């Protein structure tokens, strides 16, 4: 990994470089995605089947698109029992953490006869996208479904691309079933997002679509935003380790590589106040890269978006952290909790040398669907609030309205909205 | 207002009709908006000044675009003292309600040496769009700025189109100052949204953009979504009154018209179980329309999207409410609180015959920026949570990680992410 002195110029270059990974910049695919979305909206099931054949090389029809109870039972039997137990223990932690995120309706009444409140209602239905491809990602299934289930969503519709044999990976299916998916459909890509947004003969329309995916999925989610709600638009993964000389270089290097292995656009950055640590981490990373099975991806990712930044001070280092706003932040310093208080922007913050990032991906409980590409400045980890919505509640007694009705009328008249003023006035006309 | 029997067919037609108002369907303007956004991104201030001259017929440059302290002081002097006092009383209620929405960071520690938590951080900066045009909308200024201020946002950047004289309406400026805007710029339309999303020489880039606007503003917000966060995409206003025979037809009619006066795309719908009420409301509405100053707009809005739907039962009526998911819902029935419990989808719910909708627009305290066009199925009123974000906190002690490290490794290996497994494994290698 290249070692770069952190100054205003290098920071500016690196920030610009990282933003090149922004899915919003992939306009080359926008038209293709829009066409897929429009076609699915118009031709519904027929378009879904046709795109699935084209992109996934799988033949699916109305009788096979929905995963059956038998398919789920078969999948459960195929999963290695040890993994099943691991998933169950992980789920327990994920549920427990998300239960703590629940918020409740409240109201505030006053003896003048007013009641104001906020009613929390779970969304009726959500769609969960789960990527397919060569590997199964059961952790992603758990992380997307469990918060919806905890929030009280009644209909949790999972979609995932089928393999060429028209089947869904058994581990994915098992995770979906354990987590609480109410229905599963064999469809992926932009066509799956469009189907969930507009509905087809086979696939129900949902209120919100969540879940990570490739660039087609990300652009499709943006295209249907407004018709339905979406989670944040996921970009490539990233890790930033903030470390001082007290950090273990071997642990730091291993953690950096854990994200670099995701794909060639992933970013792994160490920001440190110690040149000694910088050199050692660079060495360890080189060594690990040789040994690991995904070394080719790791090497490309590190060459593209991997940096070791050496800062003059912890204050400079923290400023850079806040500007990068990383998806995953590890703080491995002498006072990691105190340093955490100065972090404004990060998806998940891993504190101390034993809080390795994959702990959060798989087990601790907080969600691993996190804002990427600097969007931690304004987006949050996927959470229970994403699956509920609020309604304001307003009750005024006659006396309470009478006491202030002239204020409302004056305000409305000032905005030249005379029918607004009239609606209050008529209640007190002689 | 036309009276229609509520059945499956009429409901389907009306729902389809209402969705025609969806800003996502105005694709005719999409290309224009995208061009404005791209041009402002590229040419920055120069583009902003040029579009302001083209669309607002106002000449603005780098020395005049930002509202000065003197301009604010002048504006404060111009506002009618009575209105100033009304705004202050309204602000007090808005602040009090939004203070109750605040959520706090929390953590949960266990004696095995684990700490999990959720850190709440205010966004650093937000942009607030305030429409210009013939009238001033100080209430909109208060409703958009106050929740950001309560959340603790440091930089609250307001933008609003200047008049031909290059000035901002004094009432708008006064409201901005009272509510806590930290800077105000004279720019409107899609060019204002682009400037806030990408920054120009004069206008700072922000993390999130909120505030209502016309179709150009709505489409521009959609175009920049992902680069920054936005509030929900606002469509035309709407009111739905759910009433039985106990309702006062004169009050109901006046309230329906209060939203119909907004614009020709606004929708006013009465859903009632009483044909008698339906007829009386239709009569009253006709009478009011003649008397009100904005009668032309009201008449067009009622002709376009105004309906009185007569339902066979309160259950049918409530089902329709939930399918329409109105921005504003008034419940004027014998048991309005009980009926409220059956409402799943509505932006704000006004309960009882003295809770007239404009009470919420101007005075009660809950936000008047509400989800429109059926998006109350998944969006919420603008609220304090919109101006904060969450970061997950994860701390595991060595012992805590050691106890479960094999679970993480097994899960990672199952996903073929060997560098993930490695990062945990190295911490316990002999």
Automatic annotation (TrEMBL), chains A, B:
Record-linked PANTHER family: HISTIDINE BIOSYNTHESIS TRIFUNCTIONAL PROTEIN, HISTIDINOL DEHYDROGENASE HDH
Binding-site residues for NAD(+), renumbered to this chain: 129, 191, 214
Name recorded for this polypeptide: Histidinol dehydrogenase
Protein function: Catalyzes the sequential NAD-dependent oxidations of L-histidinol to L-histidinaldehyde and then to L-histidine.
CC cofactor: Zn(2+)
InterPro entries documented for this protein: Ald_DH/histidinol_DH, Histidinol_DH_CS, Histidinol_DH_monofunct, Hstdl_DH
Biological or metabolic pathway of the protein: Amino-acid biosynthesis; L-histidine biosynthesis; L-histidine from 5-phospho-alpha-D-ribose 1-diphosphate: step 9/9
Pfam family, one: Histidinol_dh
The keyword NAD is annotated on this UniProt entry: yes
Any GO CC annotation of this UniProt entry: cytosol
Record: residues binding substrate: 237, 259, 262, 328, 361, 415, 420
Binding residues annotated for Zn(2+), in chain numbering: 259, 262, 361, 420
Family: Belongs to the histidinol dehydrogenase family.
Keywords assigned by UniProt, alphabetized: Amino-acid biosynthesis, Histidine biosynthesis, Metal-binding, NAD, Oxidoreductase, Zinc
Broad enzyme group: oxidoreductase
Active site residues per record: 327-328
Listed Gene3D superfamilies: 1.20.5.1300, Nitrogenase molybdenum iron protein domain
